[in-house]
Amino acid sequence: MTTRCVVFDVDDTLYLERDYAHSGFAAVGREVERRWGVAGFGAQAWNLFQDGARGDIFDRVLQALGLTASPDDVRTLVVCYREHSPAIGLLPDARQALDRLNRTYVLAGLTDGPVASQRAKVAALGLSRWLDPIVVTGELGPGAGKPSPAGFRRIEAASGVDGAACVYVADNPAKDFAGPRALGWKTVRVRRPGGLHVDAPSGDDVDAEIGTLDALDPLLVPG
Asked: Do 23 and 60 fall into the same domain?
């Protein structure tokens, strides 16, 4: 089957998600210093993240800094993290692939996560230059996040391309590939060093694995 549409995930596919976390912790650190006059939040949060902590990082760092934060304070810091303008950039192989593949295929994007965060990432990376549409599943309503096929159906409708003519390129085997596979799409996993899910094994809904997008072209079938 000829490939007509290539759809990209964003996090750990086109850039490293850890870079967003580093940027977000720095933004929250500035807010903490503004509110309480205490420095060091960003560096401590980043160290915990690198050590594998998830979920309770804000609470742990606030406690370590000797700060008493109300639930409203913590919610404000979470909003700061999610809505900040991130200092992130496309990985070199991603930029090259987008430039290269844009000459031959319809390119689109599909990503999960908080809408404000994902739209901020899309803007910071300049993805609208190459990808249309860019579907953020949180904008589609409850239950539309991956592994639901809802976002993939939205791309089929917008592009006029469906089934095996579509390829989804993503990184997380726990949720990224079941939805497109249910619609007959081809699936390609990018297993990047430094990616948050690099050590997770692939399931049988992954057709191929690559280390960078430099290796994507041979897996596509131009018309």
From this structure: yes
Nearest-angstrom CA–CA distance, 167 and 51: 34
Structural domain boundaries enclosing 51: 18-83
CB under 8 A, 24+ apart: contacts of 187-192: 188/216, 188/219, 190/12, 190/13, 192/12, 192/13, 192/16, 192/91
The structure tokens 């991956």 sit at 146
pTM: 0.94
User: Tokens 């309770």 — which residue?
Assistant: 56
CB half-sphere exposure, 28, CA atoms < 13 A: 28
Give the model's pLDDT for residue 1: 85
Q: What is the pLDDT of residue 223?
A: 80
Question: What's the structural domain count of the chain?
Answer: 2
> pLDDT at position 54, please?
92
User: Which residues of the chain are under the pLDDT cut of 70?
Assistant: none
**Same domain assignment for residues 72 and 169:** no
Residue 171 exposure: Cα atoms within 13 Å on the Cβ side: 23
